[in-house]
Amino acid sequence: MAIILNIETSTKNCSVNVAENGVVLAIKELNNGNYSHAEVLHPFIEEVLEQAAISKPQINAIAVSKGPGSYTGLRIGVSAAKGLCFALNCPLISIDTLTALTYAISIEEGFIVPMLDARRMEVYAAIFNSDNIKIRDTKAEIIEDSSFLEELEKSKVYFLGDGSKKCKQIITHKNAVFVDDKFPSSKEMAVLSYLKYKKNDIEDVAYFEPFYLKDFIVIPEKKKKPTF
User: Which tens digit of pLDDT belongs to each residue from 185-203?
Assistant: First the structure.
């Protein structure tokens, strides 16, 4: 039996569940359009454990969504996961955010393109086949009308995630399908983290870092002009 706590904080959705052998026992998430992870993540962890009647010493592993995504969101999730691993002396499992997102839908043929908003017209995206196997690596890219044209000419392409909304007016190919209201959630992490646990596919807790994809850049505040 494997009890795994799954944590997803890569976007504005703060999501936590506790699962047994890949089956979710209790889940708590909040997607209110704000980054409220710092306030709600730890209460959510306590709530799902209480709902599932699981004590912290019963947890066999902690799984965390590793990115790409929000720099701050990823830092909060990974920091919480590391802290729990050290406190409970249990392994850390990392789950690729875009891979997990593809499991939010099921298709028989075609391609799945999970997208996360990277500001302006840029997204973090990868390409997966109908078996949820990644066939093009994750990268940050600016969306144009020719984006993903090779895949669109071959078959249906399903776009999902918070980055897909701003692409509807640009990617207008007849094979483009936009799936609304799908975002990274700990729900899709449960089976993936259990499979990794069985293979002992774990991270070094001390040295693990999120997959940011791009460097975090601090934009200095503009100086106000003096008024006379």
Answer: 999 999 999 999 999 999 9
Pairing assessment for the beta strands 61-67 and 3-8 based on DSSP bridges? parallel
Residue partners of 122: CB distance under 8 A and separation at least 6: 140, 141, 142, 143
Helix-helix angle 71-88:37-51, to 10 degrees = 40
pTM of the model: 0.91
Closest-CA residue to 9 (of 49, 41, 51, 52): 41
Q: Is the confidence at residue 219, as pLDDT, over 50?
A: no
Burial class (CB in 10 A: 0-12, 13-18, 19+), 205: middle
The Cα–Cα gap between 25 and 42 comes to 18
Q: 50: Cβ–Cβ under 8 A, 6 or more apart, which residues?
A: none
